[in-house]
Amino acid sequence: MTKDNLAGVIVLYNPDSSTVTNIATFINFLSHLYVVDNSPMPDTVLIDAITSISANISYHPFGENLGIARALNQGCSLAARDGYKWILTMDQDSYFESSAFFNQVFNNDYPDTAIIAASYNTIHFKPRPSAYTGLLEVDYVITSGNMLNITAWQMLNGFIDELFIDEVDNEFCIRARNKGFKILVTSNVHLLHKLGEGITVKHFLTRNTFVLSKHPPLRVYYVVRNNLYMWRKFRFSNFGFVANRVRNIVALVSKVVLYFPDKKVYFRYIGMAIKDSLKGKYGKFSN
Fold this sequence. Notes:
Blueprint lengths: L5 E7 L5 H7 L7 E6 L6 H8 L5 E5 L6 H14 L4 E6 L3 E2 L3 H6 L7 E9 L13 E3 L8 E4 H6 L12 H11 L3 E11 L4 E6 L6 E6 L2 H18 L4 H21 L3 H17 L8
Parallel strand pairs: 1-2, 1-4, 2-3, 6-9
Antiparallel strand pairs: 4-8, 5-9, 6-8, 7-9, 10-11
Helix pairs in contact: 7-8, 7-9
């Protein structure tokens, strides 16, 4: 892998000025960056600031929110059309701590590898730095901070558009591993990633304060609905993953019960998620 055969895609949805700074942390390591915009009403001033960062940036608006999966597929399609072998997939609120990820990955070959990912750091998840400097094989990675093999993406027919946002990454990783591809990750932290809104709450027993990740009700709808999708799809072939997703939903519901002030709103969205999943209704939420 080299800069010459690496493109990038960043997915926007109502971004703010921090996106410009975030792009600056990786644009110099790419031959081209495709900016795919899900914003219903793009901020033209901000888009001008983004595209002026480099001549190697092209802007591709949808004019509506079609979801992370569709946007990633669009970026991958453009990269395949333009002859790139790999594509870096990024969220608008992620950025690299340094050039270490690229320095580590460049100038090596990765046979049978679908994804090479940067380990990440958030206010809710802080992996320990490791003395090991190589790449580790893992089962799942998030989509932000990934170098994705375009050939693997083509063989797997891309990401599942119907999932819209949550579980897009896990679903793709499972299919990639089922096809014999490896998923590799750096052993040290190179990506800073935002994962939900951090709110300070008091533990329901000890009353000690701690920071809790909180998503808005609509995002919780997608979490619940798509977790149920994953349960059904992989309940026989990947029981360990499904058990993990069950724990994920139990933990989410517990957080709502114990710490969220607007419980009724959240449970209304959770109810709609269950209903839509049972009906096989996926894609963008509609009430």
